[in-house]
Structure formats: C-alpha cells, structure tokens
Design a protein that fits this description.
globular; alpha/beta; 580 residues; 42% helix; 10-stranded mixed beta sheet; 3-stranded antiparallel beta sheet; 2 domains; 22 helices; Rossmann fold
Length: 580
Amino acid sequence: MPPISAGTSSATGSGPSIGLVRAGSIFHATAPAAQRRTTRPINPIRDMGPSAGASWWRVAFNEGIAARGSRGGSEPVSIAARPAAAWFACSAQITELREEMGRNRRLETPFAHRLITSPLGALLDTRAFERIKGRSLPREMRLARIGAVAEATVAEGGDAETLLEKLGLHGARSPQLRRRVAKAFARYVRDWHAHAAILKAWEGAFWSGEDLPTDALVDLEMRRRAASERCVTPGRTLGFLAKRADIAPVACDIPHPEDSFTRWSETIEAPDALFAAPEELPEFQRSRAVPGPAGPEYLLRFRSPSPLMADTVHARVFEPAEGAETAPAFIYASGLGMAYDRIRYWPEEDYIARPLAARGCRVILVESPWHGRRALPDRFSGEPYLATAPVGLFRLYAAQAQETAALIGWARRTGASALGVGGVSLGGIVSQHVAGRCAAWPEAMRPDMAFLGATSAHIDEVVLGSEITRALGVDAAVRAAGWTAERLRKLRPLLDPPASPGIPPENVVALLGRRDRYTPYALGRGLLDAWGVPPGNVLTWDRDHFGVLLGLFRSDDAQKRILGKLNEIRDTSRTSPPAQ
C-alpha cells in the first residue's frame, strides 16, 4: 500500500484500507454490493487510533471497502472536510453513512419508555415490582460506583490492579478474579476511549459553532449517549463485580459532628445567606438545538453561583414547537443518582419534559450538584450527597436552590409568562427549599408555583430512619461517625425549608406515596399541612417510592395539574390590572 498523506485515504480491492482523517470529520464508507453483507462492522477501537498528532485519526477500513468522496470512485480521495460526528468511530454497520444520517431526523422516545407506558408496562406497576426494585438498589448503586471508579482509573492512567485497590478488593485478589478483572477492564478501556473520541466531536458540533446538518447532530447526540452509558453503567464489561457484597454501594466519608458544628454554627443560626439568590445572573451559553419528539431541545451551561460548588451547571431545555417566546416555563429536578443525558434513557425527558413541551410549556431539566457531568472523580452521580451526610445534604440543597434562582431569572428574561419549579424525590426536596426560601429573593428570581413529588420534611429523621439510607449502609456510617438523632436535629434549620412558603400555598401542587419509606409519607404530608396547602392540591397514591416514580411514567395526572396551575397563573397575570 502506498504511503498515505494526512487527509487522504487509499482503498484496494482486497485487504484493509488505511486513511487519516481529522477527528470529527464525516466520510462515506461503502463496500461493493457483493461484499457488503459479509464485511464486519467498523470497531471504534480495533480499527482506529490516534495518528499524526492528537487531532488526526488512523482508520482501518474492512476488506473490500472503499473510502470515497461524494462523487464516488475508489481511487485515493480527500476525506470530506465537513467537521462533525466521528462516524468512523461509532458506525454500527458498514452502510452508506449519509443514508444512515438521513434516518435520524429527530430524537425519538426511547424504547424503554414506550414499553413502560404501554399495556405491557402494567406488569411492572405492582407491589411485587416495587419490592424487586427496592432490593436491587444496592446492586445498581454498586454498578454505578464501579463505573465511576473505572472512569477515574482510566483517566489517571491506572490499570486493573488500581481499580481493585480503589474498590477495596485488595484483600480478595484471587488469581481468577485478577484475570477476569484484567480482561473486563481492557474492554472497558476501549469503551472509554470510544466515548472520549465521540465526546470531542460532540463538543465541537454542539458548542463550537461548527456547521453540521441537523440529522448529523441528532445521530451524534444518540451515539454520545450510547457511548457514555457504557462507561457510566458498565454492565457489559464490569457488571459481574456489582454482585459482590464486599464492594460498598456508597463509599462513605461522613464528617465528624464537632467539626461540622464548628464549621456551620453561624449558618445554622442564620441560614438565609446560604440559600440567598445570586446578586446577578451568570453568563449563560446555549448549545445548538436538535429536534425532539415535541420541539427543539438544547443545553444551557453557566457557572454555578454557589460558593459551595464553583463548577459548571448544565440544564437541558425543551421548547414547544410554537410560541416558545411567551410560553410558561417549568424547571424540574430529578431524583438522587440520575445520570441525566449521560445515558440513553433519562426518564424525566419522557414523562415530564416532552409531554409538557408538547402542550405548550418550556421545560428546563437542571443537573443537580455532584450529578451527571458534575460528578466528582471516583464518585458516581450524586454519591457525595449520601457519602458526606448530613452536611452533604444541605450543601446540595443550598447550591441547587441558588442555581435554580439563576435559571428562573434566565427564563423570565427570555419571556416566560409564568414560572414553576418542581422535582421528584431529591428534586422535590430541593424544590420545597426554593418554594420556602424565595420570599427573600428578587422578584425576577421567584417562582410562581411549585410541584413537590415524593418529598419529605424533617430530613434529620430521614437520615437515620429512611429505607434508602439503611439499604445503602449510610445510616450505620452516620451513627459510627458520632451522629445521634439529637445532634442531627440541630441541623434542621439547614435541612428543612422554612415554616411557611414563600409563594401562595394554593400555588403548591404535590404528589405523595402513602407507602413511601424512602421519603416517608407522614413527614411530607406534615410539611404540606403546615404550609396550608389545600388538600385538593395534593395527589396521594397507594404506592411506595418507586411506585410513585413508575406512576409518573404511566399517568399524566401530575403533569395535568402542573400545566393547569401554570396556565391559571399566566391567564391571571394577563387579566390583572397593573400595579399602581
């Protein structure tokens, strides 16, 4: 094979073809019709690698495949210069790539959600499934932790032995385990590098202003999520380790009570400053949009206004197809441990964001501190919230409350006719802090209404008495660090919202599960009663925590109430006389 210069490829009738392409370039790979069915897929690691500098990649095509320009031909040609999606790194089939791009005109509702909401999904909507889901939680968290530790290990240049050491398996290294982990970790490393390649292309396409067709953006987004998911939840490579009970689901690092009270004593006495709205809005950056099932979808990113975080916040925005400029807006927060758009199926997109956008509401899904892209090295999405309890709890509440205030300001500045906040589980707890503390915020950063899903009060009691802290060993770690019920109660000014809401109680809508043992029903109902929320505003389902989540997937009762309240507030504001 003759030498190949950067930016060209060579093809032969037999044997592999080699080419150099700039990372992120799109090219077209075809095979003669007689060979197309017999050639194997391009593997993103086995068939490509860095070459001629970090911005160029060496690509080995399969036998009989010609790399060609848009005019066809098998002679050496220049690779198409359009920057984009690293199709060469991720193609699942040897096809005409332009044809494959054309199929993905918009993002689609994931199959998992279509199944859950179908009649077959009723098989999951049972108490038996609730029990199964609860029992599987430690294993799911363990797998997430293994993924986080593996990601950090690869990034640091570590090996399989490093991974075992970080997971606390240094005392259980049988030869069989070491061999199995070494093989699995090698496969994980390939997945990690494949994700890194496509992420680089994705960043350029969505944030750097590269000119790329919409269908290519859609496909790139889908491929990024799939590649990321293999790293975040590495079931196909390192999943066997999640069965090991000697790997803790949460690597606890509980602060000592005395140190905590020394650090936070003044804040406990005057908590308003910790939850104060930012003095000015941060600078917001907006990504390119892609069409979704209901309308355009894009990302916002901005610097966290909280001194507790000092990182970048991402939020995904779902616009209605028409009237986005004056639509009501709803900011929604997910539950603990959600990986957001680092996985293919992010339920909040499909049970709340897209349905509301289809009905004329702009929805903003915000990324919580320590979650998703904000996860810390060696920590899975949301792990520090539990691992550093109880201090980690109010640190997250305060930071996300301030970040939500900034998003409210952005939404109002961009035309929102009414503004709501809400969330489920952890997101519901944050939302009750926003609804309770916003009375002291500037009017432009206050919400008009709030939705509190599967939430609770008296979080100090939840720390020691919740089923989730017990299942993950957090309650025992908190006690071992010296925390008692009495000491935890002293943190209540930071863990709980104020005794009265900062918005009219009739503008609070809630959903609770009567059998919820993660965020206990009695505690959540007690808060709503103390706030004076009308009983008719509270949906109560005979479900546990996971049952409430599944009910949100399969029923639109809560979504109708949210949208109804937003539209009511919008219509009232339009007919109210201006303030004198």
